[in-house]
Amino acid sequence: MKTHIFRALLLASMAASGVLAAAEKEPINAPPTLSDWQAMAKLPDIGGVWTPLISDQVAQERTNPPPWKPVIAKQVERMYAEEKAGRPFPVIDHCFPTGMPSYMLITHNGFEILLTPGRVTLLGEGDGNRMRRIYTDGRPHPADPDPTFHGHSIGHWEGQALVVDTIALLPQAYLAVNEAVGVPNNGDMHIVERIHLLDEHTLADDLEITANKLLAKPWKTTRKYVRQRAQKFDIVEGVCEQGSYNDAVDKDGNAIFAPIKFHNGVPVGSDSK
Amino acid sequence: MTQARTTQARTNRSRIKQAFSAIILAAAAAASWPVAAHHSFAVYDRTKTLTLKGTVKTFQWTNPHCVVWVLVQPEGGGEPQEWSIETTSPGVLTRGGWTRNSVKPGDRVSVEFNPLRDGSHGGGLNSVTLLDTGQKLSASFAASEKPS
């Protein structure tokens, strides 16, 4: 009888400690406190809408190209030749998110930065779900994260700069220097960024990209974005797939999307029929 | 029984093969589906600029690119020909002063554009002028490069 009671107590104790251990292991997103919100007020004013300085993207592409490995440099050379001949390589034609780091490097559209306790969020404007979640709550990267277009990003503030570390990118995500020249990272890419204000109207993203399958050494480059407070710059919905369709009405009078006709990647007919 | 099982297995394999063939064909059809909306404008010949007058069939106000579909009367007569004059995104155009109603079906327009290299009826828009009002709308990133 005593043995039975002892075993029952032991099992109950094990179960209870198991539950506790599980509770300790399972992290939660804690509700923000008043002091969390007050701390937000001290952060640099990087929130809001930004548009890329495209003229500087072009200049950077010319003056600071990635240190491609020789075998990759040959692919890149071929792509530049094709672009020049009017047959641009389709880096973004698939309508998937542009992905990291190309999202920051080559976008022509605006994005919005939201600052909230424990989190910085970038909401993009084109090519589907262009969104980056940067966790600033002190969490580490997961041990085995699922690869995604934008990767897993954790960030922290160093003075006035947001330092972001990104891993777990899909191998198919391009390292692109323009819309016609880019190579899939092929795995193991790691990106460190310092996002900071250059002045009241200019945001800089200093990127250090380590892509061992493509680059002979890590590539340091900077992209600049211009502050937009005018409401006409508010981010608009941008669904890339929608560009493949025109508005139409079906035989029942319902509003539908009707596919348009493409040839060699460009629209050539308002009606595919 | 063994013979029957073997025959059945062969039939099943054959069916699976057929199913796979169907899937591959479907995949090939899907691959040729005309989805190629976001591309580099290097497809258009920027060393050439053409100007055409015509009537707007429709103005496609979509991401990633908007398209002015213009019906142009050929010089030698015959049916009007459709031209697709493509431009940047609604977001960028809005900042440049456009709205989705800037160009409407039936508007008489003059479009200035960089043509496709193979002579097909398409191009990348530089500007569109509404002939009834004289209003000229340009496709430009200039507004996005200045703070506001």
Give the tags.
heterodimer, A: 273 residues, alpha+beta, 2 domains, nine-stranded mixed β-barrel, two-stranded antiparallel sheet, 5 helices, 15 strands, B: 148 residues, OB fold (Dihydrolipoamide Acetyltransferase, E2P), five-stranded mixed β-barrel, 6 strands, 24% helix, globular
Q: Quote the average pLDDT of chain B.
A: 81
CATH class of the largest domain in chain B: Mainly Beta
Query: Approximately how much helix is present in the residues of chain A?
Result: 10-25%
Tally of domains of chain B = 2
Write the CATH homologous superfamily of the largest domain in chain B: Nucleic acid-binding proteins
Second-tier CATH architecture of the largest domain in chain B? Beta Barrel
Secondary-structure element string of chain A? HHEHHHEEEEEEEEEEEEEE
- Number of β-strand runs of chain A: 15
Uncertain stretches of chain A? none
| Total discrete domains of chain A | 2
Widest sheet of chain A: strand order? 1-2-3-4-5-6-9-10-11
- Main sheet of chain A, how many strands, which sense, barrel? 9 strands, mixed, barrel
- CA gyration radius of chain A, whole angstroms: 24 Å
Please give the largest β-sheet of chain B.
5 strands, mixed, barrel
How many β strands of chain B by DSSP?
Answer: 6
Q: What integer is the average pLDDT of chain A?
A: 90
**Residue share in β-strands of chain B:** 25-35%
Terminal Cα span of chain B: 82 Å
Which residues of chain B form runs of ≥5 with pLDDT under 50?
1-13, 16-34
The number of helical elements of chain A comes to: 5
Structural class of chain A: alpha+beta
